[in-house]
Amino acid sequence: MRSETDTNTINIYEAKAKLSKLVERAAAGQDVIIARGGKPVARLTQLTPAKRTVRFGVLKGKVKTTGDFDAPLSDHELARFEGR
Asked: Does residue 39 fall inside a structural domain?
């Protein structure tokens, strides 16, 4: 029986017994080939995180503002905003 550090190919029977260690190796970036009868049948590999896509306009029509949204604040409103 081969040691798991000798090669990246491992027999399916041995893989069942050492699955946790093999998953750790794959998570660290090392591909592990699983073989049945000496023939490769599967690869255990690291997953890359999915990229988040930016979707513009998701809140269109759901957010309302007043007509004077960008008008300067009065002294009283400015003082309240600043916590005075």
From this structure: yes
Q: What total of structural domains would you count in the chain?
A: 1
Q: Is residue 40 part of a domain?
A: yes
Average pLDDT, the chain: 87
Parallel, antiparallel, or unpaired: how do β-strands 32-36 and 39-44 relate? antiparallel
Q: Comparing C-alpha atoms, which of 17, 12, 5 is closest to residue 44?
A: 12
Q: What are the tens digits of pLDDT across the range 29-51?
A: 999 999 999 999 999 999 988 88
Q: Is residue 64 part of a domain?
A: no
User: Global pTM?
Assistant: 0.51
User: What is the helix, strand, coil percentage profile of the chain, to 5?
Assistant: 25, 15, 55
